[in-house]
Amino acid sequence: MALADLLRAIEAEADAERARAERETAAEAATIVERAREEAGALETALTAAPETEARADAIQMRALARLDASSALRSAREDAFGSLLTGIRETLATLRGTEAYPALFEALLAESRAALPSARELRVDRRDADLALPLAAGLGVELTLDTWGGLELANDDGRTIRNTLEERLANAEPLLRRRFAQMQTQERL
């Protein structure tokens, strides 16, 4: 009997050990399955988010490029508009000689130049201004050497020169015109 009791005890202990091993194996399997589900869920989220993240990055880049293109187009349009403005001013100045206002303008340019260079000895003008220049020369030698829309050049004996032509005045005014044009463009957008 003692042997039978010992065998039953060993068998009971083996059953208990088997049950414990099965529980541990089941728990371990459940943990592995749960971990695999979590990793699969994380992977699925990452894979799902990856195209979205990539699409967002692409959209941001496309917007940046579109802004750059729009800015470039706007800058180009403004430059074209300013160029058109300058062309109009040039056309107006080129025809100024034929207006009634030109003789007074020529006289004012000469007076301004004489004030800036009182030691002038030579008055250079376009041949088309000879009739205006000769009566106003008053002690200046008149040379018909300029080719200009209008205006004049004064020179003295030491080489100093005052160039007071319409072209020169426009060239000097261009930076100011550009600033004012830009300010007008900015005000129109507000």
Describe the structure.
The chain contains four helices and four strands; from the N terminus they run ααβαβββα. With 190 residues, the protein is α+β, with helices and mostly antiparallel strands. It folds into two domains: 73 residues; 95 residues, ATP synthase, E subunit, C-terminal (hypothetical protein PF0899 fold), CATH 3.30.2320. A hairpin with a 5-residue loop joins strand 3 and strand 4. Helix 1 crosses helix 4. The longest helix has 93 residues.
**What's the number of structural domains?**
2
CATH architecture of the largest domain: 2-Layer Sandwich
Helicity, as a percent range: over 70%
End-to-end distance: 108 Å
Name the CATH superfamily classification of the largest domain.
Answer: ATP synthase, E subunit, C-terminal
SSE class? alpha+beta
Number of separate helices:
4
Outline the low-pLDDT stretches. none
User: Overall pLDDT, averaged?
Assistant: 84
